[in-house]
Amino acid sequence: MSSCLTPLPVFLSDSTSCLPNTLHFLSSFMQVGLVSGISLIVGTMIGSGIFISPKAVLLTTGAVGPCLCVWAACGVLATLGALCYAELGTMITKSGGEYSYLMEAFGPVVAYLYSWTTVIILKPSSFAIISLSFAEYASTPFYPGCTPPMVVTKCLATACVVLVNCLSVKLASYVQNFFTAAKLLIILVIVVAGIVLLAQGNTENLSDPFEGARTSFGSIGLAFYNGLWAYDGWNQLNFITEELKNPYRNLPLAIIIGIPLVSVCYVLVNIAYFSALTTTELLQSPAVAVTFGERVLYPLSWVVPLFVVFSTFGAANGSCFTAGRLTYVAGREGHMVKILSYISLRNYTPSPALIFNGMLTLIYIMPADINTLINYFSFAQWAFYGLTALSLIVMRFTRKELNRPVKCPLPIAVLVVLVSFYLVLAPIVDKPEMEYLYCTIFILSGLLFYYPFVHCRFSWTRQVMSEYPHGWYPSGVQMVPQKASKSFALLNLGSFSHSSL
User: Which Pfam families would you find in this protein's record (predicted)?
Assistant: First the structure.
């Protein structure tokens, strides 16, 4: 930290005893309760996938029976992975998710490569896809019978990015709670409609569920890969552990409630789809939920695309909420420029990290198609999931002194590691392409920045990585100088830890 900044307690109070004020600040900063935690998990997991493209699992399994089995099994695997994260999150109560756990278990190099890949590629590009999905469904009603113009879609996606970079933790929680309730409501409508159809005898598509099933090792693996992509987001609460009220209780509870809830919703929604659509109709549908609504809910079929808009916006809000925390923690550890470790004293949010994530997302919105980028980099995400589960096993032997309020059975962690690395290899073995090599090269290229900027810390790299060059501050961003008043907006927590309390 440069000489123009002082530790947090100095500018929270003019008194000599600053500890109560510091604790008050931290308690104000941690504003996410159990309900909001469940909403974050459910709201981030349930995006546009279950409404638009559940056909990917059906396409690789070939029949209704194994398709439903895969959806249920993916929920079990997501729950097992989340149990590993529950132990890690209550053992290491730091925000940043996998970054913090990889740092403790394997050191700064692996953690840096994770932050490099996730901050620069995975989080903003995924956020961009969610925003584009929101924009497409929000603009479609205004262009009946045709595809909305690309410029309209991209402008709406940009507006979505700006809107979800929320002003406060509490506001973000309220927004997440509302849109999670909205998406659960439309899921309830679809499920109830499916139950009514089944009660009326529409069971033809479920009468022989395993006819035509593909049971090869490769096809089942790809089906799991597509299903688990729809479940992605089960780890999001670990990114904001420091902002969670009573994390020792609320983190595992939110996981135990949220992920099984999503699993049940996914299975029931798929059963509802099959009550109204044949496998051929489902595979040919560009948006399954909309087709289901037109066939079953008419004349109220417009409700489905409206609630898909709500669902995608809620997922975008949750994605932005957690991605900013990873960038903030990486900046606090010195793996990103120091300004990203600042938080807003007025709103208790990592504003620079949120703005940085939003700017990267806007860049990814510009190209015509970024789905290919996500597809090729998703194997890297599962590699880091496997490494994170492996870190739990490693720290059982290397960090025995750490308190573990929640203890995950070791066989579960071993199973998650094996499944994760299988999912890394499955798409590469099934369809080897040079793009996977390019992605690996990009991930390892982060070492070219790590060596001079983080490891060696040459004088010129220290200047780049510091908050700002001496005597210069950007317009519109207020820093906290040594003798500043309490009204200044941003402060740095990079040198302030729980141990200093």
Answer: AA_permease_2
Q: How far is the CA of 125 from the CAs of 12, 131, 374, 397, in angstroms? A: 37, 10, 7, 36
Spell out a b/e string for 190-211, using b for 16 or more CB atoms within 10 Å of the CB, else e: bbebbeebbeeeeeebeeebee
* CATH code, 401: 1.20.1740.10
Looking at residue 47, what is its pLDDT? 79
DSSP code, position 455:
I
In the beta sheet, which residues pair with residue 492?
A: 342
The predicted structure's pLDDT at residue 175: 78
Query: Could you give the count of Cα atoms lying within 13 Å of 457 in the half-sphere of its Cβ?
Result: 9
- Rounded to the nearest 5°, which phi and psi values hold at 235? -100, 5
Assign 378 to helix, strand or coil. Answer: helix
The model's pLDDT over 47-95, given as tens digits with 9 standing for 90+, comes to 777 877 688 888 888 888 889 999 999 999 999 998 899 899 889 888 7
Torsion, CA 106, CA 112, CA 114, CA 119, rounded to 10: 160
321 shares its domain with 342 = yes
Query: Alpha-carbon Rg of the chain, whole angstroms?
Result: 23
pTM score, two decimals? 0.76
Residue that has been written with the tokens 């009946």 in this structure: 144
Segments in the chain below pLDDT 50: 1-30, 467-501
The alpha carbon dihedral of 105, 110, 111, 114 has a sign of: negative
Residues 6+ positions from 83 with CB-CB distance below 8 Å: 255, 408, 412
pLDDT for 443: 87
Give the per-residue pLDDT at 392: 94
Together in a domain, 324 and 207: yes
pLDDT of residue 192: 93
Same domain, 474 and 450: no
- DSSP-derived letter for residue 244 is B
